[in-house]
What we know:
5 strands
Amino acid sequence: xxxxxxxxxxxxxxxxxxxxxxxxxxxxxxxxxxxxxxxxxxxxxxxxxxxxxxxxxxxxxxxxxxxxxxxxxxxxxxxxxxxxxxxxxxxxxxxxxxxxxxxxxxxxxxxxxxxxxxxxxxxxxxxxxxxxxxxxxxxxxxxxxxxxxxxxxxxxxxxxxxxxxxxxxxxxxxxxxxxxxxxxxxxxxxxxxxxxxxxxx
Length: 201
């Protein structure tokens, strides 16, 4: 029996700009996940939550806890917008999942991979895809946080180089403000052309 599972989840699948990100967390099966989520629980019992249902502050707090936790290992891999345009978002996400797994430095025989539905790992890994896994599987919930925080920080870092688009606010997603900025200024080199070509402004 494996002593570990690896949670995998993505962020940025539907964004108009920036990379797709996939987070991976190596999770000991005997770890008390409730102790982690207790950090963002004001009342009642801790419960798993998709990263999008947490505040930015809560996500950052949990991310830093994951990063400093002595029994957790994490990684995040990005696939750039031009690759998303070239091979499609599904293959790009699968490529990022493979890269994130590789960064964990663990042999496939030692862990089962648990993925949020829609993702796949390379076939050498034992794996299961779980619908709404980020709300039911601790390792996937933590991977969701790793992916979301890592990608958000990357987009915030890009914002000063592309000040007309406001990446620090919407992180590249298709908000009205972002779509209007594209309509006014055109596409930058970090936009996904295949995602933007059908926009109506």
